[in-house]
Fold this sequence. Notes:
The protein is mostly helical. It is about 80% helix and about 0% strand. The chain has a single domain (about 20-180), classed as Ferritin. Helix 4 (about 95-115) runs antiparallel to helix 6 and helix 6 runs antiparallel to helix 8 (about 160-180). The termini are far apart.
Amino acid sequence: MQPHSGQLTQQDKSAERPGAGTQTAALVVLLATSYLVAGLGALATVGNVEGWYATADKAPWSPPNSVFGPVWTVLYTAMAVAAWLVWRKRAPGTKRALAAYGIQLALNLAWTPVFFGLYPAIGTAALWSALVIILALIAAVSVTVLYFGPISRMAGLLLLPYISWLVFAATLNWWAAVHN
């Protein structure tokens, strides 16, 4: 007996899902990509955190520098897992959702070198430019959540701490732009 139109059999559903090896490889690639973005950002911060940023006027609510690395490690991991959860579903809208994810990842990659790396060259203009980037990043991650959520509720939820941290980071960025 044929299933009626629009109904997939269990065999059809499993045929659409990638195998365990492919899923593992995809997760590794997504994690590696996320950590690559983190590593490239770290290159821009290494000399500058102990350089100009050490003497910069920072927001009174700014946490110690030692907090940023662990928080970002968790966030980059959650971002990759969220993208993987969406990728593996192969649901309608997956391509659009992953495109949004790619855009936010590119904005994420852009922020650190602009904020930390350009300040010595162009001063406060770098901090204002970084603020524009982080606001665009918040919008891009919000769109990504809206695209991820219907495909994988968990994927959408995994990005909510990231948005919260970005809003917090934007306040730090704003303070730095106003006061430096």
